[in-house]
Amino acid sequence: MKAFLLGTCIALVLGVGTAILYDFVGIGTAEFYATEGVRLPETIEDMALSGE
Amino acid sequence: MVAISNVARMLSPLFVVGMLLLPPQPAAAQEEANPNDRTGVVNDAFRGPIATDNSDLIRDRWHVEGVVNLPDEKAGVLVQSEGRVWRRWHNEEIVNWGAWTILGFTLLLFLFVVYRGRIPLRSGFSGRTILRFNGFERTNHWMTAGSFILVALTGLIILYGQLVLKPLIGAEAYSTVALWSAYIHMAFVVPFVIGAVVMAVMWTRRNIPRAVDWQWLKRGGGFLPHGPHRASAYKFNAGQKLIFWSVILGGLVLLASGLSLMFPFFWLGVNGMQWAQVIHAAAGLLMTAIIIGHIWIGTIGMVGAIDAMWGGQVDRNWAEEHHDLWVDELEGRASPKEAGR
User: Fold this and answer.
1) Which ipTM value was assigned to this complex?
2) Candidates 1.20.950.20, 2.60.60.20, 3.40.1620.10, 3.20.20.70; correct CATH number of B81-340?
């Protein structure tokens, strides 16, 4: 029981901490990829936009 | 030259009359050449019918590539046939096979439970216990397990949400759920990977396949109602070893393909991205099915199994029934059982 709670808490701390780090760096945002010079191919962009 | 000029002058009225009598082909040809008019007429440049919309254009060409002055060289490829193959895999094959794998495997387990019931402890509980996993091992297991469940659930939402969730909760709510799912999916992979690495360090030596594992598999682990009731195993039986290697090797595949998806086109081209997406989805779905089996056997599938990871102590009779060679090791006994039992 204690190990279950401790393990779950550590997972939450690490997961939320990583999410904050991503947010800080900008990973997962269009701005991040734009500043890195990454541009999605038009066909894939279109698919993403059309929800395909 | 003068003679030729005179002949031409004589024939010119005939040419003008002839042109007036012919149907107005040149005007029609000009209209056909108009790129904005996609009415399905012939265009010599494409040696085929002009596409009536974008999908026809893509279907007609296997590869359309030109030269661009943009910094992004990928923009020069307008159409590449692998994209259609990827889209079919992404939208149909992976989605269908993944659903069949997970639902089919869950149904099989359910039928096995109905048919077999819980795998019993034949000798009953002795009341004496043995430490199977220490606190560090259990904490690491639950950290990895909790992370995997979150990553798997959010992965399923990303893959199946549009099909299953969107009609239920509406587009706006699904948009929020999908966005958060993507963030959770990417964030909780970190504790999962840390946990898997720690597991690899702790347990790899004990999960190297041995001859006794083949015997265990042939005996169905002793789980089948009309088969042998016992199958010898050390600390980890063959089934657990299969799950261990699935987590380690599957985790590596998922990490490599997942990082490629998190950082699109950083080190892969369009083809590489397509492969990464298909491999990531297929490996994730397969691993989810395997872990469902692991959760089943560790909880409702086998009497006494949950104690190993919950409190760390297992009943001695349980250990003797399912991991007899490990008990022999613990008690310093030689293990003649491995050869034949």
Assistant:
1) 0.75
2) 1.20.950.20
